[in-house]
Design a protein that fits this description.
single chain, 187 residues, alpha/beta, 32% helix
Length: 187
């Protein structure tokens, strides 16, 4: 797992929630910190992906955490994902949304196990009730480099992570624990 880096994605606009989801608290900790601790418990290094407007608040709330600021003009989560990839181009990235606070160690461990046992895929993603989960998914350095090249050549029109799975060499993992993928878009 030396090539695997965990990314807690916090750079969204949180329009539906009404406030920054990564800074909401549970157990007296920001959600971003809760997610980082879940990943660190699996011996993964962790970075937090944010947009430029979040830097000041995240430095205060998470002073010991490596923060990566969005650097591309691509809309949506692909912005944060590729921004981290540009900082760590040799790393495979386990992307986790900050609002998946119900994520359990077993679901994370299975993802990492499949990634280690089946190394010839570009992406590793869960399917839950027929829906592809772009968060709690692994994006390899090779797969991200190919996306980056395609973007620079203007070959990609849709920026959806779901489209990347469909266009790439993806290993789908089936989960029966749909509660692990609860996300919170409103209070």
């Amino acid at each position: 797992m030396k090539d695997l880096l965990a990314v807690v994605l916090c750079g969204g606009q949180s329009r539906r929630m009404g406030s920054d989801k990564g800074l909401l608290t549970t157990q007296n900790k920001p959600w971003a910190k809760v997610m980082a601790e879940k990943l660190e418990a699996l011996s993964l290094p962790v970075v937090i992906s944010i947009n430029p407007g979040q830097l000041s608040e995240y430095r205060k709330a998470l002073p010991e955490t490596t923060l990566i600021i969005d650097k591309t003009s691509i809309p949506g989560p692909l912005n944060g994902l590729l921004s981290v990839h540009k900082c760590y181009p040799e790393k495979d990235l386990l992307l986790m949304a900050c609002d998946l606070i119900d994520m359990d160690p077993e679901t994370l461990s299975l993802l990492i196990q499949i990634y280690n046992e089946h190394p010839h895929y570009d992406f590793y993603a869960y399917k839950v009730a027929g829906f592809i989960q772009p968060f709690c998914a692994i994006y390899t350095a090779k797969g991200l480099a190919e996306i980056d090249i395609s973007l620079r050549k203007n070959e990609i029109v849709k920026y959806s992570l779901h489209h990347r799975f469909a266009a790439g060499n993806t290993k789908f993992i089936f989960s029966t624990n749909s509660n692990a993928f609860n996300n919170y878009n409103s209070l």
